[in-house]
Amino acid sequence: MAVTRTFSIIKPDATRRNLTGGVTKMLEDAGLRVVASKRIQMTREQAEGFYAVHSERPFFNDLVTFMISGPVVVQVLEGEDAVLTNRTVMGATNPDNADEGTIRKTYAESIEANSVHGSDSDENAAIEIEYFFKPEEIVG
Ligand code: GDP
Ligand code: MG
């Protein structure tokens, strides 16, 4: 294993319920370090670009509308095997299928309002980090 980086979003359902700290604590307890973080209101254009890979999925418009329904916290996380470590602590997309102790099992409201995003590969992590952060905003 090596120390790598991944990209995370604390989604609007979690910021709305004041769970920024709770989610971040679970990420940190899993061994991840927040090396960049900012609270933003995404524009529709920004959210559509971020989720472009899902543009043909039936839930795309609902997902974009949800992601701009309130502020989000975008973060760069660093740690051993960061993509996998983060995906493990996040839990399954549908909270009904998420393991006990995961962020989604603990906090998610539904398959859509599932509290967190996490990159699914090192390649996508690099693309997603670049989408939201300038290099000088990341301090390891
Ligand atoms: P993730 O990598 O676990 O976040 O899941 P995906 O990449 O497959 O989907 C991206 C996001 O789209 C999920 O985190 C959910 O917010 C949303 N989503 C996924 N599947 C569904 C669905 O069947 N219905 C709705 N409404 N939203 C979904
Ligand atoms: Mg995904």
TrEMBL record:
The gene is ndk. GO terms for molecular function: ATP binding; metal ion binding; nucleoside diphosphate kinase activity. It is found in: Cytoplasm. InterPro entries: NDK-like_dom, NDK-like_dom_sf, Nucleoside_diP_kinase. GO terms for biological process: CTP biosynthetic process; GTP biosynthetic process; UTP biosynthetic process. Homotetramer. The keyword Transmembrane helix does not apply. Major role in the synthesis of nucleoside triphosphates other than ATP. The ATP gamma phosphate is transferred to the NDP beta phosphate via a ping-pong mechanism, using a phosphorylated active-site intermediate. Its main location: cytoplasm. Its EC number is 2.7.4.6. It holds the Pfam family NDK. The active site is at H117 (pros-phosphohistidine intermediate). ATP binds at K11, F59, R87, T93, R104, N114. Transmembrane segments: none annotated. Residues 3-140 form the Nucleoside diphosphate kinase-like domain. Keywords: ATP-binding, Cytoplasm, Kinase, Magnesium, Metal-binding, Nucleotide metabolism, Nucleotide-binding, Phosphoprotein, Transferase. GO terms for cellular component: cytoplasm. This is Nucleoside diphosphate kinase. Its cofactor is Mg(2+). It catalyses: a 2'-deoxyribonucleoside 5'-diphosphate + ATP = a 2'-deoxyribonucleoside 5'-triphosphate + ADP; a ribonucleoside 5'-diphosphate + ATP = a ribonucleoside 5'-triphosphate + ADP. SMART domains: NDK (SM00562). It comes from Croceibacterium mercuriale.
